[in-house]
Structure formats: C-alpha cells, structure tokens
Amino acid sequence: MTKKEILREWRLYFENRQVRKDIYEKYIVYIGVLLENNVPIIFNFDHLCLLLGRSNEYLSSVINCSSNHFRDFEIKKRSGGHRAITAPYPALMEMQYWIYNNILKAIPINSSAHGFTHKKSIITNSNIHKGQKELLKLDLKNFFPSISINRIIYIFKQLGYPNNIAFYLSSICCYDNFLPQGAPTSPILSNIVSRKLDKRLITLAKKFALKYTRYADDLTFSGDIIPAKFIDYVTAIVCDEGFEVNINKTRLYKSKGKRIVTGISVSGDVIKVPRDYKRKLKLELHFIKKYGLESHIAKKKIRKYNYLFSLVGKVNFWLSVEPKNQEALDYQILLNEYVKKIQQPLDITL
C-alpha cells in the first residue's frame, strides 16, 4: 500500500469509531511522519507493550529500573586488560532486537563509519589508510558510556515520535541513563549519534587533504602531511560533540615503520596481518605440522577446550586480510583435516 492509501485506511478507522475530526487529524499528521521515516506507528505505552509482546508491569520495570535487567562481566582485550560488558537478560534483549530491526536498522549513518555496519569491517577501515606517508590514530574515551539517554531520546524524536514514546524506546536501549556496551542496539545507536562528529571530521580532513575513518571509538587520519596542530583541531571537535579523546592512546606516525590500524598492518601498499601475529601463529602451526596436534597439545600442556577452533579462526582471519597467501591456505587445509577427524561420528558396533 502507498502512504496515501494507508492514511485513507486510518481515516476510515477513526471515523468508524466516531473519533472527532479535529482529534484524528492530529493522529493522521503523526502517522504520516512515521510512515515517511519508515518506522512503526506507536500511539502510547499500552500499544508499545503489545508490539513488544510484554506486559505493562514488565515494561514499566525496565523503564523505571534498568539495572535489574542487565548483568555485568568482563572480557579480555587483545591489547591487554579487560573490557567491562553490560549485557541485557534475554527478555530485554529480545525487545532491543525488535527496536533494532524495526526502527534503527534503516537509519543511514555516515560513510566514514566502518564499525557495526553492513558490508564494512576492520578490513575496509584499514584498507583506506594503506601506504600513506603519515598516519594519526586517536581513541574516544569511554565511548558507549559517554552517550547519554538524552542523546538517544533525540534520535527517536527526530524520527517523529513524541517525548513519551521516545523516552520509552530510549529507556529500553539504555542502562542507568547511558548506552551499555553489550546491548544489540548500542552499536547502531552510537553510529547514529556520531553522524555529526563524522561529518565535521570529514570536512576537517578534506581541508588538510587527508583521509578519515572511524571504527567504533577508533579515529584514523592519513595523508601526505599531518601537522601536529591538527590533533588540537580534532580534539576540539570531539569535545564539542560530547566525546573525549583518550590522550594516552593518541599516536602520530611520521616516519616509515610499523603501522597498525584496527589490528591490520597498513605500512605498505597492500594491507597485511601484523608480523607479530603471524610469527606467533606460524610457530604453533609449525609444531602441529611437525609433531601432530595431539602431541603439540600434550607437550605445551594446552588446556583450552576450543584450541583447534581458535587456530582455525586465526588462520581464517589471516586469509580474510591476505586471501592469496599460499602459506595460510596450506595451514587452513592442515587444520581442516583435524576438524574433520574430530567431527566424524564414532564407530560403535554392538
């Protein structure tokens, strides 16, 4: 149905229920805006409960006390240390996925964003900066927690939702009035919130003939010349947009040498897996090839239950960056043979 036909159906619906024309015309305007933005029509709290398949009591609990519906844990970072994760329990996560799939997924984000977006990745992000003379990397401090519920409310209001509905939807996506790192809605919301930041940084980069990308909280600039003063300009824009630069992680590379962008080497004209990553991986694979998987595990006293599959994942990552690397292809074949062996059904004869 076209927008015009849908609005006609709604007019008939209101007229059949003898709603006053001056009242339902306001609803028609509201519905028209939501249809224009291709988002679901939500009239009130009870209607939202029906759409989400949750009781009024449950949704009230989420809105009024979000901390009861999340759990906290930590995961190890590749660079060392731990990252705090605040993840929703299944019932809340299901509601967040509804919001993601029905409202947020279709909202456009800036082309410079490479994290949490379709057809982009750490590979597309790093590929833009390969072989450049100079490189600048900055990190946004406490990226997700720095995004408050008020900024999320503003997103939903821009789509046409009134204050109360925007507040309900934002409360479902937030934890203690901030964006949690662990909710399925947080990545896309962070990209939407960062659209103006990205637009301003692209404009700044163009003035200096530089390239710019953002992968979540990692900002990267590259080009022929990056003046030291440029960092101050970036920092000023970042602060003005409600974020903070982690000064301890700011790196400006002016000479040739090791350059890593989102875990990938961009030192040459072709992106590659970092040398240290390959060296450690190849050493393990060498021993497996020479002595066999079982012997290697026994000698090194490896206790990881998923050790084989972690190696498969590492080799697959290597090939995703360097798809024609023959050494990686050979190791992939070797590991796949071991995977086939452990996945074979047991031959039990009665």
Task: Report a brief summary of the structure.
With 350 residues, this protein is of the alpha+beta class. It is built from 15 helices and eight strands. It has helices at 3-16, 21-36, 45-52, 56-64, 90-104, 122-127, 149-158, 163-173, 186-193, 195-207, 229-240, 275-291, 293-300, 307-321, 326-343; strands at 70-76, 82-88, 134-139, 211-215, 218-223, 251-253, 260-261, 264-265.
Structure report:
The protein is α+β, with helices and mostly antiparallel strands and 350 residues long. It contains 15 helices and eight strands. The strands form three sheets. A four-stranded antiparallel β-sheet has the order 4-5-3-6, with helices on one face. Strands 1-2 form a two-stranded antiparallel ribbon. A two-stranded antiparallel ribbon has the order 7-8. The mean pLDDT is 95.
